[in-house]
């Protein structure tokens, strides 16, 4: 095995080291942002990470209220309808259906009721939140 001196190759390109940079006459200069994009990571499966996250996301099943629970909720709404001018604070828990998959989640909002609209089947809170009456599962006065 023959020993090669590593310093022999150091001066191999000295003749071209200080030549001016070549500028093409037919191709325009590429901006630095485009040059950097050439070396950015490539996502072969666009949306794969989001799809995996969506599959793993848990939703809750909507519970069905029996007649007694529906009657109690209706009575609470009727009493709150009369107390709207007093601006009493309440907590309303309701089911929010998921837009992408079956099921949803239960949300509890706190605040004062602005209006109970039985015709449009919504409770309007003073902060602008609209809660569909059929989705309400619990109401508590604070």
What structural class do helix, strand and pairing data support? alpha+beta
Determine the fraction of residues in helical runs and give it as a percent range.
10-25%
CATH fold type of the largest domain: SH3 type barrels
How are strands sequenced across the largest beta sheet?
4-3-2-1-5
Low-pLDDT residue intervals, each spanning 5 or more residues:
none
- CATH-derived architecture of the largest domain: Roll
Name of the CATH class of the largest domain: Mainly Beta
Q: How much of the sequence is in beta strands? A: 25-35%
Task: Describe the model.
The structure is a single chain. 4% of the residues are buried. The protein folds into 2 domains: 9-56, no CATH class; 67-141, SH3 type barrels (Roll), CATH 2.30.30. The chain has 142 residues and is an alpha+beta fold. The chain is elongated. The mean pLDDT is 85. It has a 5-stranded antiparallel beta sheet, with helices on one face. It has helices spanning 32-37, 48-56, 67-83; strands at 89-97, 104-117, 122-125, 130-132, 136-141. The protein is built from 3 helices and 5 strands.
Structure at a glance:
This protein has 142 residues and is of the alpha+beta class. It is built from 3 helices and 5 strands; from the N terminus they run αααβββββ. It has a 5-stranded antiparallel beta sheet with strand order 4-3-2-1-5, with helices on one face.
Which SSEs are present, and which pair or pack?
Blueprint (H helix, E strand, L loop, with lengths): L31 H6 L10 H9 L10 H17 L5 E9 L6 E14 L4 E4 L4 E3 L3 E6 L1
Antiparallel strand pairs: 1-2, 1-5, 2-3, 3-4
């Amino acid at each position: 095995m023959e020993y090669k001196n590593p310093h022999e190759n150091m001066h191999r390109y000295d003749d071209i080291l200080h030549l001016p940079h070549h500028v093409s006459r037919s191709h325009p200069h590429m901006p630095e942002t485009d040059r950097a994009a050439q070396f950015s990571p490539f996502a072969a499966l666009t949306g794969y990470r989001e799809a995996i996250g969506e599959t793993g996301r848990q939703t809750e099943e909507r519970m069905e209220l029996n007649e007694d629970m529906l009657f109690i909720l209706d009575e609470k709404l009727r009493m709150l309808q009369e107390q709207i001018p007093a601006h009493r604070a309440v907590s309303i828990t309701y089911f929010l259906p998921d837009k992408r998959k079956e099921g949803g989640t239960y949300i509890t909002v706190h605040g004062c009721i602005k209006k109970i609209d039985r015709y449009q089947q919504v409770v309007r809170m003073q902060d602008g939140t609209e809660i569909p009456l059929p989705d309400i599962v619990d109401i508590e006065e604070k």
